[in-house]
Each structure stands twice: as C-alpha cells, then as structure tokens.
Write a structure and sequence with these properties.
The protein is α/β, with parallel strands linked by helices. Helix content is 27%, strand content 26%. The protein binds S-adenosyl-L-homocysteine.
Length: 222
C-alpha cells in the first residue's frame, strides 16, 4: 500500500528547489549537501496533515515531543561533516530519519541511534519503505555510541548535548570529525571536534542553534 504522502509531485519538487535556493542564499556552499537536499522529499518525513509545512525553512514537531531539524541546520551540520563517499557515519538522534537520508544520499554508510521506541519503530519502517538500505537504525542510548561498529569516520549529534560524551570521542577514527551542538541553556553552540591523535582533539565553534535535549538512557515508554 503506497500512501499518497509518499508521492513526490512536481509541486513538491518545485518547492524543494526553492528551499535549496533559499538555503544557498543563507550561505551553504557544499554542492553535495545541496544536491542531496534537492533529492530527498522532506514531506515524506511529515504526517500527511502537515505536508504543506515540509518546504519551509523551519523545524517541525514529529511526535513524541521531538522535532525534525530546520533544513538550514541539517545543511549546516552536513557541511561541517565534509562527507566523502563510503564513509561510516554515526548519527545520534534518528528522529524522523531525514538527516540520515541526506547523509546516505551523499554516499555515506549511516548508523543512527534513537532512544524513543515509537519513533525508532516508525522511522525504521519508513526507511525500509523508501529503500534506504545503507542506513542502519538502532534503538538505544546515543551517549554510549555504537561500540560494536566503531570506529567511525564521522559523527553527528542532532540533539543538544550538555557535554561531549567520552564514548563518542573513543569511537571516532583519528582524523575523524564529530559535529555536536553543546550547551544546557536554550541555545547551544555548534561545535566541531577533529580527532588529531588517540588522545587529542582540535575544537572549532560555529555559532548558536536550538535543539531538543539529548536525554540519558532509553525512553521509558508505557
Ligand atoms: N536527526 C533528526 C532530528 C532529531 S531531533 C531528524 O532528521 O529528524 C533529536 C532526536 O534525538 C529525538 O528524536 C530524540 O528522541 C533523540 N534523542 C535524544 N536523546 C537521545 C539519546 N541519548 N540517544 C539517542 N537519541 C536521542
């Protein structure tokens, strides 16, 4: 059964072109990121009653108190990752799955962790329906990373982290990049860490963003 939600009409394609143009005007220059964003139908990650909001450059609620990140933020974080084809990327905070699909379209092999079971189940199913076979989804606590599949070339955290988790740093390859919004207040600082040796990192900060919090452990549902 194909729901009408998963039809990519000319109208949606046109709206997406405009969104990408807008993101380019806001300063995103990585052509691989822009091409991926033009390809992935963002409305597939919305409930059918909210499709009209999918091509605004805004975050949007996806249920379970979570949000799909603003397209500009997805583009910004994806650019900071400097994705190369075939790289192994770990994402913390699967949410709707949209960010994971952007990275997959850029040629990455994506491993993504979600702590909310309902969201995990819903998104895993959607990614199967959309045939994103290079994305592997995991239900668990992202603070711990994914030791069994480490090391990773790159990592992206899509929730606000109060601190940088040691397990993530340990599971990053030397010369790998971690992109993470850090801070406990309303706004967080987008931060990149490049692993310069087994024990050293170089840190760069890239301005303020607003994310839902990175919470500890799996969610306790029902
Ligand atoms: N990348 C997502 C946006 C996710 S919003 C997208 O493209 O739609 C942040 C997500 O992180 C939420 O779904 C939230 O449940 C999840 N999250 C929060 N803390 C977590 C943790 N410790 N481990 C894994 N996922 C977590």
């Amino acid at each position: 059964m194909t729901s009408t939600r998963l039809i990519d009409s000319y109208r949606h394609q046109g709206l997406r072109k405009l969104l990408v143009k807008n993101i380019r005007l806001k300063g995103i220059t990585d052509e691989n990121v822009l091409a991926a964003m033009e390809k992935v139908p963002r409305h597939f990650f919305f409930d059918s009653s909210f499709l009209e909001y999918a091509y605004e450059d805004k975050p949007f609620p996806i249920g379970a108190g979570q949000t799909i990140s603003q397209p500009y933020t997805v583009a910004f974080q994806s650019s900071l990752l400097q994705v190369e084809k075939g790289e192994k990327i770990l994402e913390i905070g699967t949410g709707s799955g949209y960010q994971a699909c952007i990275l997959a379209e850029m040629g990455a092999r994506v491993f993504t962790i979600e702590r909310q079971k309902t969201l995990f189940d819903k998104t895993t199913k959607l990614l199967q329906t959309l045939r994103y076979t290079t994305i592997k989804t995991f239900y668990g606590d992202g603070y711990k990373g994914l030791k069994a599949f480490a090391p990773f070339d790159k990592m992206i955290v899509t929730a606000a982290a109060p601190f940088i988790p040691d397990d993530l740093l340990d599971q990053l390859k030397v010369s790998g990049i971690l992109v993470i919004p850090v801070g406990e207040s309303d706004l967080q600082t987008m931060t990149t860490l490049v692993k310069t040796s087994d024990t050293t990192f170089s840190k760069t900060e890239h301005g303020a963003f607003r994310f839902v919090p990175l919470l500890t452990d799996k969610a306790n549902e029902k």
